[in-house]
Amino acid sequence: MKLSSRAARAALAALSAVGIGGIVAASPAAAAAPQHRAAAHAVFVATDGVNGNKVVAYDRADDGTLSLAGTYDTGGVGATLAGSVVDRTASQGALAIDAERGVLYAVNAGSDTVSVFSVRGSALHLRQIVPSGGSFPSSIAVHGNLVEVLNSRGGGSIRGFRVDDGRLHRIAGSDRALGLDPAATPEFVNTPGQVTFTPDGSQVLVTTKANTHAIESFAVGRGGRLSATPVVTTFPGTVPFALTFDRAGHAVVAVAGSNAVVTATVNADGTLTQIESDPTGQAATCWIVRVGDRVYASNAGSGSLTGFNGDEAGHLTLIGNTHTDAGSVDAAATSDGRFIYVQAGLAGNVDEFSVNADGSLTAIGSVTVADAVGGEGIVTL
Q1: CA pair distance 292, 309, nearest whole angstrom
Q2: What is the dihedral of CA 334, 276, 327, 124, to 10 degrees?
Q3: What is the Cα–Cα distance from 269 to 231, expressed in whole angstroms?
Q4: Which of 77, 111, 121, 169 is deepest in the core (most CB within 10 A)?
Q5: What does the alpha-carbon distance between residue 44 and residue 34 come to, in Å, rounded to a whole number?
Q6: HSE (CB half, 13 Å, CA atoms) of 63?
Q7: Count of other CB atoms within 10 angstroms of residue 315
C-alpha cells in the first residue's frame, strides 16, 4: 500500500508537538548496589541510556507508590532513532518479563544485543547478553519458552529464541525479514513498532507504523520456527504503532496516524479483520495497555492516557482522558488491575495511577528515573 504522506506528516507533527528537547539524554548515574530483598511487588524501567543502558527497579507499596530498589547495568547501550522526540526506540515492549520463569529481557538498541536477567523480587542478576540478530533491537515478545526479538533498522527483522534454564538459545533458521523500506523518513515513524505473540501463541504479529501501515503475521510452527513469509494486513493511513489483546483475543491497536484505537479479529490464516476504530481525540496515540476488560492508550503529543471499556465482541466505549507528565509513552499495569504506571519521556518520569471501579484513574505519585529522558520499556511484577 502506498504511504499516505498526509498521515505521515500528521503523525510527525503530533509527535513533534511535545518538543525536540526530549531526545537529549541526562548524564548517566552510577549503578546502585543491588539490594537483594524479597519484595512482593516490583516495577522495572529501562533507561535506554546512550552512554550505558540500565534497568531501574522499584519496590511497589500496597498503595501503589514506588520506591527505588536498585539500578542494574545491562552490559549494553541504548540509541535514538532519527527524528524521535520523547521515545528513543519508538516502540512498545523494550522490556519483557516472564514472571513464571523469573526472567527479565532488555533490548540494547545501540549495541544490537539483548540482556537476560534473573529476577528475585525487585533484585536482578545479569545472566546473559546475546546478539539480537539485526540492527537496533527495539521490542521483545515472550510466550512459554519462546522469545522473539524485533530489530528496527535495515528494513526490520525478527529473530527467534528458545528459553532453557533462564537463558536464550537461538532457534536455527529463525531470522525473518520484514521487507520494509530502510530509507523511508522520518526514521522514528517508519521503523517497526512492536513484536508480540497472539494469546494462544500460534502467531507472531509485528506493527510496521507508517512504513506500509500494516500488521505482519507469521505462523509459529514446530520448534518455534516461523513461516517463511508473513501475511500482511494493511490499515491505510493509520500508522499502526502498538497493540495488545482483549480477553476474547481480539487485537487492540493504537494507531498514530488517525489517533485512534482499532479493534480487529485475528483470523486463523493470519489476516486481521477490523471491527471498529475509536478516536481518542488526542495527539500521537501510540502505546496501549490492557487492564482487565479495559484498555488505556498513551498519547505522547497530548501528555495523556485515554481509557476505553471493552466487551466480548471487540467493541469499545470511551471512559475518558487522564493527564500525565509530558511525552507519555510505554505503560504497564499490575496483574490485579489496581495500578497503571506510565513512562513520560520528556523528563524521564514514571507516573503512578490507581484504577478506580469505573475505570477512571487517580494520580498517586511520580518518580524521576535517572538517565531515562526518552527511555522506553516498563514491566510490572
Answers
A1: 9
A2: 30
A3: 8
A4: 111
A5: 13
A6: 6
A7: 15
Main-chain phi, psi angles of 336, to 5 degrees: -85, 0
Map out the domains of the chain as residue ranges: 5-380
Contact between residue 88 and residue 107 where contact means Cβ atoms under 8 Å apart? no
Distance of CA 171 to the CA centre of its chain: 23
Phi, psi of 90 (to 5 degrees): 45, 50
| Cα distance between residue 162 and residue 170, in whole Å | 6
Cβ distance 373 to 80 under 8 Å? no
Average pLDDT for 131-141:
98
- C-alpha angle with apex 231: 226 to 232, nearest 5 degrees? 130
The distance from CA 356 to its chain's CA centroid, rounded to whole angstroms, is 24
Number of other CB atoms surrounding residue 108 within 10 Å: 25
- Residue pointed to by grid coordinates 531470522: 175
> HEC states along 334-372?
CCCCCEEEEEECCCCEEEEEEECCCCCEEEEEEEECCCC
pLDDT in tens, 159-180: 999 999 999 999 999 999 999 9
371 grid coordinates: 538517565
- Fold observed for domain 5-380: Methylamine Dehydrogenase; Chain H (2.130.10)
Q: Which amino acid is at 188?
A: F
Over the stretch 228-278, which tens digit does the pLDDT of each residue have? Answer: 999 999 999 999 999 999 999 999 999 999 999 999 999 999 999 999 999
Q: How far apart are CA 161 and CA 223, in angstroms?
A: 10
- pLDDT at residue 379 is higher than 60: yes
3-state SS track over 142-190: EECCEEEEEECCCCCEEEEEEEECCEEEECCCCCEECCCCCCCCCHHHH
| 268: CB partners within 8 A, 6+ apart | 202
Average pLDDT over the chain reads 91
Per DSSP (E only), the strands in 246-315 are: 251-255, 260-266, 272-279, 285-291, 294-299, 304-310
